[in-house]
Amino acid sequence: MVEKNKLIEGRTGPWEVVLGLEVHAQVASNAKLFSGAAVGFGAGPNEQVSLVDAAMPGMLPVINRHCVEQAVKTGLGLKAQINLKSHFDRKNYFYPDLPQGYQISQYKHPIVGEGEVIVEHDDGSTFMVRIERLHLEQDAAKLLHDQDPNSTYVDLNRAGTALMEIVSMPDMRCSEEAAAYVKKLRTILIYLGTCDGDMEKGNLRADVNVSVRKVGAELGTRCEIKNVNSYRYIQAAIEYEARRQIEILEDGGKIDQETRLYDPTKNETRSMRSKEEAHDYRYFPDPDLLPLDLDPAWVKAIEATLPELPDAKKARLQTQYGLTAYDAQVLITEQARADFFEAAAKGRDAKLTANWVTNDLAARLTAGGLDISDSPIKPDGVAELVQMIEEGVISSKIAKDVFERMWAGEGRAREVVEKQGLQQVSDTGALDAIIDKLIADNPGQAAQVKEKPQAIGWFVGQVMKETGGKANPGVINQMLKAKLG
Ligand code: MN
User: Fold this and answer.
1) Which domains does the chain have, with CATH numbers?
2) Ligand 1 centroid vs 110 CA: distance in angstroms?
């Protein structure tokens, strides 16, 4: 059953969108997949090119062990089958940014087989996307069309960089699900340390396969939208493409299987080339490379280095600290944020600590464009603030002011409270006179409390006003009840 809200209403009734993604993730590695040339952002054009990358005749590729290890690690993180035997194939095609005239990739025998990713919807519910495979392959070089009005330049720095192509099953049914899947996949890769996930630099990009069908019908013909590199574009490209296909079908036309490009400035997709079939590429095993033959003990050793992954961390934060699924989800989105929380929550009220980390601190960091590692308030600072709230020294309301002052560099929580005289007034002597005067001045309100106990709130508010918000609300309530009761 497809949920109604995921269907797109057309002239002839509702349509179901079927989405599968091929994500290209650049392997976090200092060197390329088959050469020792450096990989890095910011080098000058053609400064990171070996003779292998430039495809000089007679050069031989040599597999980079670290890249293989990263692929295995990723496979394990995706709970996938690790294929102990795999091999590399040549995928032949001509393109000016491909000096070899073929891409070394993996076709029939990828290094990683079927796996799965649990993905969260915005409302906290989850769905599963099955992984079909993960294979290793080379990236192409880059053409520069905007350097000169009459020529195109080529920068070979990216040629031969290791990519993991992660292919999902067509398990997504709306654009939000596709974006949520990429988000989750990216988080897992960053936790694993196998890809930096930098989408702006193109280190993680998605090819989106889109088709539409009437509910319950056979799968429709799909179009592939190439290289979309932001969540927003992924969603916009899918929305546009699905509607384009629906219009064609409702007009009695048929969808041509093709590769399309998304143009964010026009917010449309346009045809790039009709889709090649696998046989057009003339895949064959690369004769320059031996099959990959992994030692099971090596795979076991890699497994032992896996960090605690997002799903496990989320479950642990819920049980160990009694957090809600929502709070735990917000915390684990970033490893550093979860670490910050755990450091701050030691011996403190965990729920309260989580609130400060996910609300006030997160808002401040976002506004300042800062990573949590650059936060001027450290975990022990949040812990100190929370402790003062727990001890009743300051109210939660005053704590907001203290927090702002801490952020501005005025000192630690205790210092700020002492310097500014923000301690809560729990001293009944000081409050006594204020309350007595209020009751004497407002006999009408006082009489009301006898009939309507909730009316006591008005007095609490007045005492707060008189004391600049520093009175301890628990203490005021008790005193008022005693005097008006
Ligand atoms: Mn690919």
Assistant:
1) 2-302 (no CATH), 310-394 (no CATH), 428-484 (1.10.10.410)
2) 12
